[in-house]
What we know:
Elements: H1 8-17, H2 20-24, E1 27-36, E2 46-49, H3 51-62, E3 67-75, E4 79-87, E5 93-103, E6 106-116
Parallel strand pairs: 1-6
Antiparallel strand pairs: 1-2, 3-4, 4-5, 5-6
Domain SnoaL-like: 11-110
Organism: Roseicella aquatilis
Protein name: Nuclear transport factor 2 family protein
Amino acid sequence: MAPAGFDFAALRQALLRGDAAAIAALYAEDAVMTIVDRNRPPSAPMRLLGRPAIAGFWREVCGCATRHAVAEEVIGPDRIAFVEHCAYPDGCTLVAAMTLDLHEGRIARHLTVQAWDELGETR
């Protein structure tokens, strides 16, 4: 069961549909998203500050013809963790482990650690 005030089922459905606006609406106005991967190592991660910047990220992600799956969720009163599996039209796949810190029913901090297939072009 999701913590009171946060609807994980809505997040899951928005991810599956690729609905960037619905995903962004779940973040606090001053939320922080951090992404770590091969091209953005822990010493220099991508950091997005505020809902508008995070919404832009999700518009870009959801603008691709990508299939998304959500699995392995762990839901606590103030934190949710899950794994997102993505398949891109070019055959590339992505696995992203996400941790969401919640405050007052919204995502306040989001950490993603992700790994891509090596298909030539880096993302």
